[in-house]
Zn(2)-C6 fungal-type domain-containing protein (Plectosphaerella plurivora), 699 residues
Amino acid sequence: MPQDDEPMDNSPRAHFAHPASSRKPSWPSSAGSAQDPADLHKHNSHATASASAPSAQLRTLLPARVDEPASSMQPVRKKTMVGRVQVAAACLGCRRRKVKCNGGRPTCQRCAEQGLACEYDADLDSTRMLTLKRRQVELKTEIDDLRDLFSLLQTRPEQDALEILRRIRTGPAGDVHGVVDFVRSGDLLLQGTALSTAASGLDDPQALRVDNRAAEEPYAIRVPARPWTTIAGDGLVSELVGSFFAWDSMFWLSFIDRASFITDMRAGNPAEAKYCSPLLVHAMCALRCSTSPRAKALSTILGFDIRDRFLNQAKKILDQENGRVSLPTVWALAILFICSASQGRDRAGIMYRFTAYDMLKRMRLQQRLELLQEAEDDEEASVAQRVYSRSLWGMYAFESCVAFVYLNPSAFPRPTMPRMFHDRKTGIKSINTGFVDDYPLSTAILDAACDLSDIYNEVMVYNRQAKAEGVLGSQADLERRMLHFQEVQACREALPVDIQSSRHFTPGACSLDSFADQVLLAIFRPLHHDVSLPNSSLGTAGDVCFSCCEAGILGAERVERDFQLQQQGYSVVITYPLYSAAITLVSMLEHPRVAPLFTRVCRLLAEMQDDYLLTAFCLHGVKAMAEKMGLPIPPATRPYFTDLRVGQAQLQDVPISFVLPGWDDMTEFLSHDGGIAQEEGLGVEMGMLITKWNAMSTS
């Protein structure tokens, strides 16, 4: 060890063990103790000198006395001190009297000798703190069970409630968990019954051929449809699940751990599955049906919309779960919100979003992971560590992306659990299959998305502060925004080569790039377009916003060319940078260079409306914005506003709560009708703008 007067080396270098020559060796003495080499040298010298003395000086050895015990001739050995045995927990009596306790069960040695009652407040082979933590989790589970029981008695039909009461009266005293578990098991049976009644048309030969061919898609993951769903066969379900992980889970919906989900789904046991459920499978399939050519072909053959069938079944199962808390339910709720938002009904689906966040907080994943680690179940703890960390950080990144369309910071707090979903020792592999999920790549993308989410949320909080203090555009404000700009650029430069869209264009890398541009829009869009930035190479705030919009549109056009036109599908996440580009460019239409780019983004939105009705509402909102600002729509763009898939009845109450930036013209237009989205005046609701604009144009 270094001496007190020597400086410690705190540099981040590997600390190697000292060489053997620097250590002070010791040898055993005849007394069984260690002896210093110098002392040993003197002892040997003395022994040699004694041996060289004349033999006359030596006394004659006499025979030993008979009555002397032989053991007296042995050298006296030092008694070895035995250290006090550490015990996990002392009994209450010894701890109260502050004396040593040997931890004996059921009675320790001291209490037994003194005839005292011996009590412990810690479990066997466990510390008091671990026992308290375990008891805390048990009490939390018991409280959740009691709440579930109360909810069951309150919401179930009278006949079911009476059966629950009978079960309580006839069962063991205080067995709340047993009663609730009994009801939940019954719900699983109900789910199975509902699934069996949902199937239809799978015996049609043409439908069967389409279903079988779906499994041949390059991104399909072979999974069984049953017992999870009977709406479609193994082929289509394999395609839909595979496309979810190839498109949505690579960036936006990255909170689901693919390996754990697939393992549970292939096991085919809903009652034992931890990371898969019928609800989650139906939600995933409903989301992916929107862009699946096979799903659309099956809908035509069977005579019903298979997407609606999956979605309705998911909602039915969710209702049967009665608020049961689980990770698959959390994931499914977030997906159901996206299903609603993609069809222009985010206001109706917002309850799914916030219920998912609340449920995930209530699960206390950090405490659950600590208990698993204490139980020394290495395999289960390792899987849970990866799944829990990915769930929390993936939900944080997801909400940070979603929150931008509401001009808010993330409604889900930044996790305190470390990012343990990304094993950096595995490195990053190159993509060979084009766009199929590659696990190290997806975790690297999530890692970068979390870094960008931190910057985004700091920016959005600052935007509110700057608006309230009236410092927008000041020198200090511009310097602050340039610091955030540099942070985003540093994140981009630190990206591994394989997730840089300029080097390897994949849907995940493209979405990550769009998210970085979204953060830049959050930084510079609150400024007036003509504000010059301190960095002269950037030009004005409008120049940066224009470049971000152009990059998002170029990425969407390449996805269309490389994947969408080859009928390989795409993701709803691509509509978000297009939406941001459209509402940003419409306020800049007075500049000649904006019109061609604005036309391109409107074309992309119009061609996606058959899959995602949200884009039709976006175009209505953009048109209303242009008219209220007194800006004419470019002639080349007008055809994309003439054949929108939204009727007049749907425009009377538009269920979209996306927030448009609060430019003065629109803010004044809606200020008397409660259309201001926030008290700070940061924006107005797009749905309210469309509804009022439609009412005025039809009157």
User: Anything to note?
Assistant: The radius of gyration is 35 Å. The mean pLDDT is 79. The longest helix spans residues 439-469.
